[in-house]
Amino acid sequence: MSHAIVSLRSYLLVFAGLLVLLGATVGASFLELGIWALPAAMAIACAKALLVAAFFMHLHQENSLVRLVACAGLFWLGIMVMLAMSDVLTRL
Amino acid sequence: MPADYTEIPEAAFENIEQQRDASKLGMWVFLCTEVMFFGGLFLAYCEYRHLHPDSFAAASSHLSWMLGSVNTVVLLASSLTVALAVRAASLRSAGTVNLFLVATVLLGIAFLSIKGFEYYTDYREGLIPGSSFTYSSSQPGVQAREVEMFFMLYFIMTGVHAFHMIIGITAFIVLIAMSRQRALSLQTIENAGLYWHFVDVIWIFLFPLLYLVGHH
Amino acid sequence: MEPHLAAGQFQLFPDQASTFAAHVDALFFFLLAITAFFSILIAGLIIYFSIRYRRSASSVPHTHGEPAWLELTWTIIPFCITMVIFVWGARLFALAFHPPADAMNIYVVGKQWMWKVQHPQGRREINDLHVPSGRAVRLIMTSQDVIHDFYIPAFRVKQDVLPGRYTSEWFEPTQPGEYHLFCAQYCGTSHADMIGTVFVLEPSKYAAWLAESSTGKSMGDTGETLYRQFGCNACHGTRAPTLAGLFRSTVKLENGQTVLADESYLRESILAPRAKIVSGYSTIMPTYKGQINEEQLSQIIEYIKSLRDFRAPEPENKP
Amino acid sequence: MNASTQTLPVAVVFQRASPSYLNDGYSVRSWLLTRDHKRIAILYMISITLFFFIGGAAAVLFRVHLLTPSGALFQPETYNKLFTIHGVVMVFFFLIPSIPAVMGNFLVPLMIGAKDLAFPRLNLASWYVLMAGGAFTVYAAIAGGIDTGWTFYTPYSTMFSNTNVIAAAAGVFITGFSSILTGLNFIVTIHRMRAPGLTWFRLPLFIWAMYATSVIMVLGTPVLAMTLSLVGIERIFRVGIFDPALGGDPLLFQHLFWFYSHPAVYIMILPSMGVVSEIIPCFARKRPFGYKFIAMASVAIAMLGFLVWGHHMFVSGQSMYGGIVFSFLSFFVAIPSAVKVFNWTATLHKGSISLQTPMLYALGFIGLFTFGGLTGLFLACLGVNIHVTGTYFIVAHFHYIMVGGAVMGYLGAIHFWWPKMTGRTYSEFWGRISAAIIFIGFNLTFFPQFILGYLGMPRRYYAYPAEFQVLNVMSTAGASILGIGFVLPLIYFLWSLKYGKRAGPNYWNATGLEWTTASPPETENFDVTPEVVTEPYAYELKEAIDAGGLH
């Protein structure tokens, strides 16, 4: 149950990775990406969230149940946004 | 100074392992509900950004991406210190735990201070929705009412986020006090940490959605 | 309120007075048959088993297998039935969303707690709706305050009426007579008083009824007056796009998208001119929101629609 | 059968080492600060009974009002406040907490062989949260009332209603957290606290139902909380979120509201399905037919229930495509519901059936739920929905599910587990009488409303055209019978507390771990943590042993 202790170095590497991604998302917002601006920003945000969840929140060491629970919220949020937007996007 | 983080299970549990497992699962389920709690706001944001893209871009450009970025760094750093506090707790190093928890609290307060400064700037510029909203623009596709809606969402989303941070900071202050009395369990620190990381993740999404919509 | 209505008489089934009503009722009876079949089946089995296998001194519960084919059967058969219902229902729904091209338009404005109706020819009425039989009628509806719902049970049509946008419903009355009109979306204190009567008249009688109009001015005529009053003619045709032939045409926008110029587009362009800018024009038009009420808006729209016979220059040729 | 003739497969001798949970302390403090899930269940039972009669009284009053076409009793404002308080109280303060918070709290630890729920303090907090929410709502009802309907549709609720919307919304908002915390507690408990040997497919079907319900509570309720907060913000600050006059979209409110409130219907019905799945095997002395299918159907309903909310909005101005997608998905929920009904019915086949009170409720449930579910097809079907939505047809449909389904299940559960909860038996005679009265009263109340609905009578009307009077009078007559039916159990249950015969540990000779404890159970539930070695519902085995014992 108790996790193997993650090394200090790993934590610092994750933090560095997060800072790089932050730079990437700010940088991307200055490029004229048109309709790809939002998907790009969201992809980078997801990558950052994944880093935090996997390492800071120890999801990579957790059992599948905890991982499933962690995904469930996002999955249902996806359902809500997708189905509601399916109405908004096709409304005349 | 070594600390002993073992404890006796509550009456409902067979043993301490079962209790830790249950408490961690409970925390993750709670975070799930938190995702859905913010979810309604994200849906509102999605719909209105789709309907009023130009207004949202114009409104977003009134926010300082620099202050936002600095705040992101501050919050990410606080996540790091929490992670290190949990690590120290696993290593049974109570002094280090306290050090990192204090750092986290300070970083949290720094974040809220910068946020407060931003709110103040918005107030000065008349961007607070309601009767004091004084925005006007002649750009094509930009309407003051839609800009006001962006700021409404901005204040609600960041406000709810800030409220979560205040709860987190309070929790950490309590943990520091408990730690001084050797009344702190590893599981409690871990759960508080999970909560704090979650608040961080929410910000990771809020930042590009609110600060980086427009072209600068 | 409705002295002539075939009211007060106990009925078990509502009047069927539109082409759509016949479609809905056919599907309704299909569903009723399914409901009756399964309700009687289940209730019958429960009662039969309860008697046949009632507990007695000698009764021993009988273990038997749980054949997979049985589970599969009662999963697949209901699924197939529901898909039939879905497709049938969806076809009717699509029909309700697509009025015939030659449908006549009538404008409806809901407010707490009354219905205001304008016929294109100019006649207005409150809490009543006169329509000719045998002719498709499309209602273009909006609300001044909260959400209402325009419901005519005898026609089996119902549509929420929202503030800030147009919604529409259509029907083709078949039987001359008088029918109930209800607000079917709770709208506040006097919700139950937001009712009226639909009068279905023979086409000739409807024409005569229209002619009784007090002013003799059509909605388009009134709209033209308003068009000048608000100074629309000062720009449209010169600095602003011409409106002749606009209705039902495809408009190319500044941001590269195209949009169909229907009533909703015209409405938005008057109230929020900056929302969609026509390609090649600047954003000089002020908003008329707050200066113009829903009825005037529909009159101006009717006027713009009446300009459709003129051919507009191709969008590409615009300055 | 009675308690004295039963034989257990395993001889269990009940020597009370510790007092029953009811006798473990008598002070007010020992109740109000208890962490015992069983005592908390009793606290819930008392409070939701109170809420049920508040909501019921409102219903009786407006049904009497509707005796005459122009309305017999009230001003329009009063009528509107009555149906709103009926809806808000019944949905949020009775139906949603009913089986989960009362029966779930009492039974989940007992059924899985645990000493308590995973988080006992949180459990007590949930009850206080419900009480706080209830206090707000009752305050709203007294101080000015609220007239928006339980659906709080915008912009009426945010900009136009002059009533106490904020207080009522705050009440519902707060109550939501009670439901979230209860769901969270159940999920963790079911995952982590099961007795050794109690694998997922050995769980009682009630536990499966509670698990599915908890998932909905945890994932759906926060959305409602945020939605109501936004209503409050728009109402206080007058800044557009949902009001079109301020640039908002009222349909966004409806999407958010129904994203919770449609699955909420399954919060109400799934637990009842779980109860029925317990009662029927016991009174047919058989393992439930298709155990795995019933279990999986609960989970499927919980999942699919989140995909169908747009069927409340077919005529709302939602897009045609949106409507078609939601209608298509809605029909999928019909399948697991149908599978359950068929499996319950098949369980009766070749059983050894006795029609005691809980079984009467369970069979009544199947019949009424089947009919309610089938009328749901009319509403999921796009073409017919246009005509019947917003009318009494929909009122009738959801009362068949909510009263015919959820309330029948709740009453069945109380009658089934009453001997376990209190250690006393009630009058079987009066139990059967009241079940019959409720069944008759219910159908007389709500069946005419289907006809009214198809005739076109809109819901929430304080006055109506004269031709609808006959059916309205029938409905009101039914409501008065139904009212009597609901008061009767209150009387004989209270009577049984003092005069009822003592019930043995296993009054119905049922399977399940809760029946291996004393009646009423001890505070600790089990002296020794039980170990499960058999499949659930081993009634055939039990009968065979009993028959052998008679030799």
Describe what this molecule looks like in 3D.
Chain A contains 3 helices and no strands. The longest helix of chain A has 27 residues, at 64-90. Chain A starts with 7 loop residues before the first helix and ends with a helix. Chain A has 2 domains: 1-61; 63-92. The model of chain A has no long low-confidence stretch (mean pLDDT 90). Chain A has 92 residues and is mainly alpha-helical. In chain B, helix 1 crosses helix 2 and helix 1 (16-51) runs parallel beside helix 6. Chain B starts with 15 loop residues before the first helix and ends in a 5-residue tail after the last helix. Chain C is of the alpha+beta class and 319 residues long. Helices cover 33% and strands 19% of the residues of chain C. Chain C has a 5-stranded mixed sheet with strand order 3-2-1-5-8, with helices on one face. In chain C, helix 1 packs antiparallel against helix 2 (68-97). Chain D contains 16 helices and no strands. The longest helix of chain D is centred in the first third of the chain and has 37 residues, at 76-112. The chains are: A mainly alpha (92), B mainly alpha (216), C alpha+beta (319), D mainly alpha (551). Chains C and D meet through helix 1, helix 2, strand 7 and strand 9 of C and helix 3, helix 5, helix 8, helix 10 and helix 11 of D.
Briefly summarize what is shown.
The complex is a heterotetramer of chains A (92), B (216), C (319) and D (551). With 216 residues, chain B is mainly alpha-helical.
The share of residues in helices of chain D is 55-70%
Q: Quick one: overall form of chain D?
A: globular
Strands of the biggest beta sheet of chain C: in what spatial order?
Answer: 3-2-1-5-8
DSSP summary: helix tally of chain C = 6
- Annotated CATH topology of the domain at 104-211 in chain C: Immunoglobulin-like
Helical stretch tally of chain D:
16
- Give the second-level CATH assignment, the architecture of the domain at 104-211 in chain C: Sandwich
List the keywords.
heterotetramer, C: 319 residues, alpha+beta, Cytochrome Bc1 Complex, Chain D, domain 2, 5-stranded mixed β-sheet, 6 helices, 19% strand, D: 551 residues, Cytochrome C Oxidase, Chain A, globular, disordered N terminus
Question: Which SSEs are present, and which pair or pack?
Answer:
The complex is a heterotetramer of chains A (92), B (216), C (319) and D (551).
Chain A: H1 8-30, H2 37-56, H3 64-90
Helix pairs in contact in A: 1-2
Chain B: H1 16-51, H2 53-60, H3 65-90, H4 94-124, H5 144-180, H6 186-211
Chain C: H1 19-52, H2 68-97, E1 104-111, E2 114-118, E3 124-126, E4 128-132, E5 137-143, E6 148-152, E7 157-161, E8 167-171, E9 177-183, E10 196-201, H3 203-211, H4 219-229, E11 250-252, E12 258-260, H5 263-271, H6 294-306
Parallel strand pairs in C: 1-5, 4-10
Antiparallel strand pairs in C: 1-2, 2-3, 5-8, 6-7, 6-9, 9-10, 11-12
